[in-house]
Fold this protein.
Amino acid sequence: MTEPADLSIAALAAAQKPTFSFEFFPPHDQAGLEQLVTTAQQLEPLAPDFVSVTYGASGSSQEHTIAATRALAAHTHLRIVGHLTCTGQTTDQLRAALDQYANAGVRHILAVRGDAPGGPGEPWQPTPGGLANATELVALVRQHGDFEVGVGAFPDVHPAGSAELDVKILADKQRAGASFAITQLFFTASHYADLVRRASDAGVTMPIIAGLMPITRLGQVRRFAELSGAPVPDDLVRRLAAKGDDAIAVRDEGAQISLELARRLLDDGTPGIHFFTQNRSGVTREILATLLAGPSRWR
């Protein structure tokens, strides 16, 4: 899976073999930071193509994100993607954040609009002196420095839009300078395939990497689905609920469900899978190790 360090993520994702990557969130204390580094080090032997560190609503976790990025750069050899949102920040603040990323050695940015401070159900308002949307953010990042820029994509229609609007915006972000996309989490492979088809019809040529959250608890699935707008299939709920209060059995069934989805996506030709790890390595390691023991075209 590994390639020369200077190879772009877009080039990796456009290669014949799929990319595998991990997403972390920035911890808010030293203990959490140490756990994050430990998790990354446990995953590093699997040779991920890149890892990303999220960015809180309103830029609330900016300092923690930069600290996590620096820690990963110092203690691992991973290619790092830093998230950046335009929620709650002026253009000057965004440029300052990009300078911090550059100083930390980060040259890959995932540019997303971000949710409203009150949560995804609240109306989003541009910050005075800031940007109106992710397309403008992509353009700012590209103009500010030598960054490769990725963006978000939605297999399940964005709650504030429509399927047609989603791919139009994705095409706009590509024209602004984005070279790869990573989807929100989803649970139905056909929804991803539909997104790729619609995007292609709209002129999108950049690789669209599938975002996958390893399942460990039913409550976890419902909570993240509510935040992302991704519907939870009834069959998935039934399979997990059938395990009752046996936490280990639920975890194992969730890992199997995630593995089945990953295999379907890979068989269908996804250019990559991005695991939302929740800063835990166990289930992700099991799923990826099983995938890497599969067909050679996945390795």
Q: What stands out?
A: The chain has a mean pLDDT of 87. The two ends are 6 Å apart (CA to CA). The first helix runs from residue 9 to 13. The beta strands are 19-24, 50-53, 80-85, 108-112, 148-153, 180-185, 208-212, 272-276.
